[in-house]
């Protein structure tokens, strides 16, 4: 994500120096599409480096970067929202399951300190 954001920044600088300003929007849209949209699955879904990993590891700066990259259009933002929704749902279910298991153990007279 850092590389994608950096490439977008460099392309914007190149437009300012070498191209007419009227070509900026079209060029940046194309670069954004190639760097961000084409690789959306890899950027969002990777187990060790995707959005869920950023949430799990509390990588706030990288989460902000991901939001900046995917908030340009509603369709792209929806991709990010879906990953976030799944992460929150999965974490919530895991937490409820953990609490339920502890309560069941306590109701059966088991103490967590005995294990």
Automatic annotation (TrEMBL):
GO terms for molecular function: ubiquitin protein ligase binding. GO terms for biological process: ubiquitin-dependent protein catabolic process. Pfam families: Cullin (PF00888). InterPro entries: Cullin (IPR045093), Cullin_N (IPR001373), Cullin_repeat-like_dom_sf (IPR016159). It comes from the Eukaryota. Residues 1-101 form the Cullin N-terminal domain. Belongs to the cullin family. This is Putative cullin.
